Amino acid sequence: MPVSDTETLDPSDWQALRAQGHRMLDDILDYAEHLRERPVWQPIPDAVRAQFRQTLPAGPSELSAVHQQFMDHILPYSVGNSHPGFMGWVQGGGNPVGTLAEMLAAGLNANLGGRDHIPIEVEKQVTRWVSALFDFPDTASGLFVTGTSMANFIAVLVARARALGTQVRQTGLAACTSRLVAYTSAGAHGCIAQAMDMAGLGMDALRIIPMNAQFEMDTALLQAAIQADRAKGLTPFFIVGTAGSVDVGAIDDLDTLADIAAQEQLWFHIDGAFGALAMLSPALAPRLNGIQRADSIAFDFHKWLQVPYDAGFILVRDSTAHYDTFATPASYLRRETKGLAAGSPWPCDFGPDLSRGFRALKTWFTIQVYGADQLGRMIAHTCEVAQYLKQAVLANPKLELMAPVALNIVCFRYRCNAPDVPDVVNANIVVALHESGISAPSTNTVNKQLVIRAAIVNHRTRTEDIDALIAATLRFGDQFSSTDQHAASKQDDKSHE
Q1: pLDDT (tens digit, 9 = 90+) per residue, 266-283?
Q2: Which positions ≥6 away from 327 have C-beta within 8 Å?
Q3: Mean of the pLDDT values across residues 415-440?
């Protein structure tokens, strides 16, 4: 039976594809250029949701028609983190250079799991750049991952192998007599506990150390916890310092944590999801003193560096320990000294993924085009905008600052006279802000009180966006405070009948 060679996904008319591609590129660049003219976010109509409940298409569609579906039903209803009014959940805004680089990476379609090709050299160059930034040795290893959650998990596994020996990879934890325990702040991200879970150590093996008044880990309580665990016959192995906490943007006393880790011979890891890259700013870098002493650092290029999602990273001082934790010989991954199968060790020897996209390219483009100095100024500017918001809150008697502003996260709320309604009022304010399309902060709990949390991560956010946030917060606060206090008063009257 003859073989048909007509089946291909390439177009029959490359010029038509090229023309449509130019239109698609223009549309997405127009979107970025005119973001301020759009709402930050808007509710998704039921009719639009219904468009994504269709059955699997058996036949083809015109590219132009599918693109129009994107323009009509996807683009207007995205999360909105590119918008200057987006201030929720510590998400970067992306950048147009990164958008173009992502297009190039997709066209190249390189798999960075391994083998000998230049895209891997690009990733290695980024590793050398950040090694220099954090004063790590040239021999340090680094790996692009989805985000800091995965980077923290990798760090736990490397530290676990260091503490128990690499035989744990073969025999498992059940064969180990040592019971490992780790330590982090009460302000640390939940992915640290999740990493302990996924590593088989259990979340109960993570000691949550209380914070001081500045929302930093209490180092005296940390030392006491380590000694108490040793007295119980447990094996401390891992300290996680936070550089830019998820709640309020606090930075732990990294230098003191490094001292404790050295004294106790524990692995010192830093979760610097967004805060670590403050090292690019001469004004902010001193606040991270001690980060240079870490054994590993996890951070995201897609946050403060504005690289399009996703581009997380793990940097490990001891590349041998990193390699020994993940390298897995397999005949189908045989390494050679020449040809495409050369270039050992491969990136898959430093993490769990064999199939890996070219995340490094959009990061490499962003750093090359803008330069470290401009990126550092941009990061510092977001902190200046946060200070502007802080002062606006302090200047208005209807608002209350709920936590210190260490970097770029401002936690505040609308004051209410009735004691039982502030949480409800402020939660309603945030929903109203979202649905208005004016601004998109998130909520958080600080000292058991619900707060409005504005994370100024986007390079596009300016003081005018802060002014809009404050004005809308006051308007909605007045509205909901009046309604809820009236309802509370009526309820109180009923209780006395």
Answers
A1: 999 999 999 999 999 999
A2: 345, 349, 350
A3: 94
How far, in Å, are 7, 75, 131 from residue 18 at the CA level?
Answer: 21, 21, 40
Average pLDDT, the chain: 95
State the pTM of this model: 0.95
CA-closest candidate to residue 325, choices 138, 113, 165: 165
Confidence band for 93, pLDDT divided at 50, 70 and 90? very high
